[in-house]
C-alpha cells in the first residue's frame, strides 16, 4: 500500500466480514446484562482506485452480527464510485436518505452500519494523508470541522456558530498540546479487574496489577447481586486504598427506584461514578437517579443512540461524565458533534472502549478533544480493556496507565487479515471446530 | 386452513418476503421528510404443525427493506420448534436476548423485526382461537394482560399493580362496549387529502370527498414551505369550514426554535394538533415546542422507538395525543404497555396508520383500548389512508368515517399470496418491468 497520496480518488470496492471472537468461553466481558458475549465486528473494507484501503466496523456481542453485516452491505451504493473527499456531505447523504432513515431514524442497526462505513472512510482519508486520525482532525480548521457536523435537532442546545467559537477558542496552544500529548499520552482507566464472572482472588490480583501498571482509575461491574457487589467493592477498596477512583457500571440493570436504592447501598465505598444505571433511552430516568444519589456522579453513553439523546442528557443535568462510543453513533462525524456538545455544557468526555477495537478507535477522538476542543485532560480518562488487541495491525499502546498517541497513519481499526479469516463466522477455524 | 383449534402446537416453519409497492410513482405518501417512499413490508409467515399460519410484517418505505427482512430471519431460532402459547414469555425472551439486545436495545431494525414476529404470533393465536385479535385481547383477564408486558424501565411511571387496577376498573361494561363497537365502529380521520405532492385542485377535491364520506377529521402534511402550507391550509379551511378538526403533520422537519416559529405562523388556521414537529427522540424538544405553541396540542409516536420514550413524553407533558404504531415497537405486547401508560396519564391514543397494512393492524389495538382499557372513544381517532388495502385478505372497512370492527379471525395483516408474488423485490413482476 502506498504511504500518503494526494488528489482525487474513488472507492471501487467494498468487502464485508462477519468476524466473531469466542470470548464467552472465558467469561471475559461478563456483566449484569451481558452474561456471555462473543465480541464481534461487522467489518467493512473499502478499496480505492489508487490502492488504499479503509477499514471500519460495528461492534456487536455475537448473535445478530450477520444482520449488522448485511446492513453495512446495503450502504454499498452510497460509496462505490463516489469521490469521497467531502466526508461531511457523504455522511449527511447517508444519514438523511429518506428511505433508509425510516429504519431508525439515526439509531440501531442501520445507524451503526453508517458508523462503520463513516469510520472506514476516515481511516482511508487518514492513511492517504499519511497521518494518524487524531492529528488529521486536529489540523483541520474550525470551519472544516463544523462542516462535518449535521446540526439538525441540535440548535436549541448548540448552534453552528457556538461550535465554531469553541473550536476557535482552542486554536491557540494547539502545537504545544500536540507536543505534550506525544510526550505523555492520554490518561486511561481499566475495567479488566471488574468483570462479574471473575472470583475475588482474580479481582484482587487484577486490582494489584492495575495499580502496578500505573492506571489512575478502575471500574467494577455491579447490579447482579447487591451483597456480591458490596463484597467485591470492599475487596477492591482494600487493594486500591480509600481515595483511589473506583467507578461502578450497572449496564442498564435497574429501574429508576431500584437504581437509587442500590447505588445508595454502595455509597460508603465512594463510587467515582455510576455508569449506565438504567435504560440508555431514559433521559428523565437518568436525571431522577442523579438527583437521588447526589453527589455520586452519573455516567452514560456506550448505548446512547445519537447526538439527540446526548443533547437531552446534558440539558437535563442527567450526567456528570459523557461516554462516547466510537462505533455506535454515526461515526467520527456525529462524535465531533457530541464532543462539542459536551464542551458547551462543560461535561468531561470519558469514552467507552473495550470490545473489539473500540480502544483503538476512540483514543483518536479523545486526543482530538484535548488538542482542538477542550484543551485539557483533567478529570478525563479513556476506558481500557486488555482484550483482543493482538488482532490489530496498529494496536493501542498503554504506558504508565496512559494511551500513547498513535503515530501510524489511519484510524487504528484494521484487523490482521489472518485474524479475519480465522474468526469469520461460521466458517473460520475458530468456529468450525466449536 | 382449519377454523379455530385448541391444544398445544408448535411452529415448524418461517418464511420471509421482501415486498415493495412502487408508491413513489404516484407521489402517494409524499411529505416533508419522505419525498418518494415505496411503501414496503418485510413480511413473515409462521407455520404450525396443525396447519395454521401467522402473518406479520415490519413496514418500511423502500431501501433497506432487505436489511429488515434479514433481521426477521435472524429470529427464526426463537420461534421454530417452540410451544408458543405463552406470548409474554416468548416476547420477553426475544427482547431481552443479551446478544441481540446490543443491536438496539429495543430500537431500530432489530426491534421492528421482533415486532413483525410478535404480531405474526398474535395473528396465529387469534386465528386458532377463531376470533379477531381485538376481541381475543378484550376477553383476556387483567392478570393475563399484565403478564404480557415487560415493565422493565416503566416502574417510575407505571407499576404492574397500577396497570392491573386500570384494567380491573374497565371490567365493568365490557360486554356493552363490545356490542356498541360492533354497532357503530371506531372513529377515523383521513390523511388522504393532505400529501405534499398533490396540487390544490386535488386537495380541494379530496377534502370534499372526506367530508362526504363522513370523516370527522383530516390531516395536512406541512413543513416543506411555509407559504405553501398557509395556502393549502386556507384551501382546506374553505372546504371544511372554520371548526372542522384539521391536524397538521411535519414529519420531524423542524428544530425546536424553527418548529415553534413555523407552527405559530399557522396558528390562525387552528390546527387540531401538530404531529412530529421534530425528532422522535427529542422528548425535551417536544416539551419545549408544546410550551411554545400553547394551546395547540402536540402529537407524536409513529417513529417513537419504544415504551421508554413514550413514558418520558408523558412524564414531560410533551404530548396531548399519543400515536401508537402497530409495527415499530415490540408488537402487540409493547403496545399494551403503551396503551396503559397513556391511560394512566389520561392522554388519548390516536394511532398512526397508512403505509402497508398499518390500518389493518392498529384498529385492533384501539378497539381493545376502548373495550378493556379506557372505555371511551371520545377525542380519539384512528388514522386512515386509502392505499393498498386491496392487497389484504381481510382489509379494513370504513363506514360513515369509522372503522368497522373486524369479525374475521386474526390480526388482519395477511397479504394475498398473489400480491406478495407480484411485489417481491427485485424479482416480482412489478419490479422486473421497472
TrEMBL record, chains A, B:
Q: What class of enzyme is it?
A: lyase
Mind telling me which InterPro entries this protein's record contains?
A: Enolase-like_C_sf, Enolase-like_N, Enolase_C-like, L-fuconate_dehydratase, Mandelate_racemase_C, Mandelate_racemase_N_dom, RHMD-like
Q: Which domain of life is it from?
A: Bacteria
Q: Which UniProt keywords apply?
A: Lyase, Magnesium, Metal-binding
| Catalytic activity, EC | 4.2.1.68
Q: Catalysed reaction per UniProt?
A: L-fuconate = 2-dehydro-3-deoxy-L-fuconate + H2O
Which Pfam families does this one have?
A: MR_MLE_C, MR_MLE_N
Q: What is this protein's name?
A: L-fuconate dehydratase
- GO MF entry, a single one: magnesium ion binding
Can you give the residue ranges of the Mandelate racemase/muconate lactonizing enzyme C-terminal domain? 200-296
The cofactors it requires, by name, are: Mg(2+)
GO biological process terms, semicolon-separated: carbohydrate catabolic process
User: What does UniProt list as this organism's lineage?
Assistant: Bacteria, Bacillati, Actinomycetota, Actinomycetes, Streptosporangiales
Keyword presence, Lipoprotein: no
Q: What CDD domains does the database record attribute to this sequence? A: rTSbeta_L-fuconate_dehydratase
Amino acid at each position: 500500500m502506498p504511504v500518503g497520496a494526494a488528489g482525487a480518488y474513488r472507492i471501487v470496492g467494498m468487502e464485508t466480514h462477519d468476524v466473531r471472537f469466542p470470548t464467552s468461553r472465558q467469561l471475559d466481558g461478563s456483566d449484569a446484562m451481558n452474561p456471555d458475549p462473543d465480541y464481534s465486528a461487522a467489518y467493512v473494507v473499502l478499496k480505492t482506485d489508487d490502492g488504499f484501503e479503509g477499514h471500519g466496523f460495528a461492534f456487536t456481542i455475537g448473535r445478530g452480527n450477520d444482520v449488522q453485516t448485511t446492513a453495512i452491505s446495503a450502504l454499498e451504493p452510497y460509496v462505490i464510485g463516489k469521490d469521497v473527499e467531502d466526508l461531511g456531505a457523504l455522511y449527511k447523504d447517508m444519514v438523511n436518505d429518506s428511505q433508509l432513515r425510516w429504519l431508525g431514524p439515526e439509531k440501531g442497526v442501520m445507524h451503526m452500519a453508517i458508523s462503520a462505513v463513516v469510520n472506514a472512510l476516515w481511516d482511508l482519508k487518514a492513511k492517504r494523508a499519511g497521518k494518524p486520525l487524531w492529528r488529521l482532525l486536529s489540523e483541520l480548521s474550525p470551519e472544516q470541522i463544523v462542516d462535518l457536523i449535521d446540526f439538525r435537532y441540535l440548535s436549541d442546545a448548540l448552534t453552528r456558530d457556538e461550535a465554531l467559537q469553541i473550536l476557535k477558542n482552542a486554536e491557540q496552544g494547539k502545537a504545544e498540546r500536540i507536543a505534550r500529548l506525544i510526550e505523555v499520552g492520554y490518561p486511561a482507566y481499566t475495567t479488566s479487574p471488574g468483570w462479574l464472572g471473575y472470583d475475588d482472588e482474580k479481582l484482587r490480583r487484577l486490582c494489584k496489577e492495575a495499580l502496578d501498571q500505573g492506571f489512575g482509575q478502575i471500574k467494577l461491574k455491579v447490579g447482579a447481586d447487591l451483597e456480591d457487589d458490596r463484597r467485591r467493592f470492599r475487596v477492591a477498596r482494600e487493594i486500591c486504598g480509600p481515595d483511589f477512583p473506583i467507578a461502578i457500571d450497572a449496564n442498564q440493570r435497574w429501574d429508576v427506584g431500584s437504581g437509587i436504592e442500590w447505588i445508595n447501598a454502595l455509597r460508603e465505598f465512594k463510587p467515582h461514578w455510576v455508569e449506565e444505571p438504567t435504560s440508555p433511552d431514559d433521559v428523565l430516568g437518568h436525571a431522577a437517579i442523579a438527583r437521588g444519589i447526589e453527589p455520586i456522579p452519573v455516567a452514560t453513553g456506550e448505548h446512547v443512540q445519537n447526538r439527540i439523546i446526548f443533547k437531552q442528557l446534558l440539558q437535563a443535568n442527567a450526567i456528570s461524565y459523557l461516554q462516547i462510543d466510537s462505533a455506535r453513533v454515526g461515526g467520527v462525524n456525529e462524535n465531533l458533534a457530541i464532543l462539542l456538545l459536551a464542551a458547551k455544557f462543560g461535561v468531561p468526555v470519558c469514552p467507552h472502549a473495550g470490545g473489539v477495537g473500540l480502544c483503538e478507535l476512540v483514543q483518536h477522538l479523545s486526543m482530538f478533544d484535548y488538542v482542538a476542543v477542550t484543551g485539557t485532560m483533567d478529570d478525563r480518562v479513556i476506558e481500557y480493556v486488555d482484550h483482543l488487541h493482538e488482532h490489530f495491525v496498529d494496536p493501542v499502546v498503554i504506558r504508565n496507565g496512559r494511551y500513547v498517541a498513535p503515530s501510524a497513519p489511519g484510524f487504528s481499526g484494521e484487523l490482521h487479515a489472518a485474524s479475519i479469516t480465522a474468526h469469520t463466522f461460521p466458517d473460520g477455524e475458530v468456529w468450525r471446530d466449536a
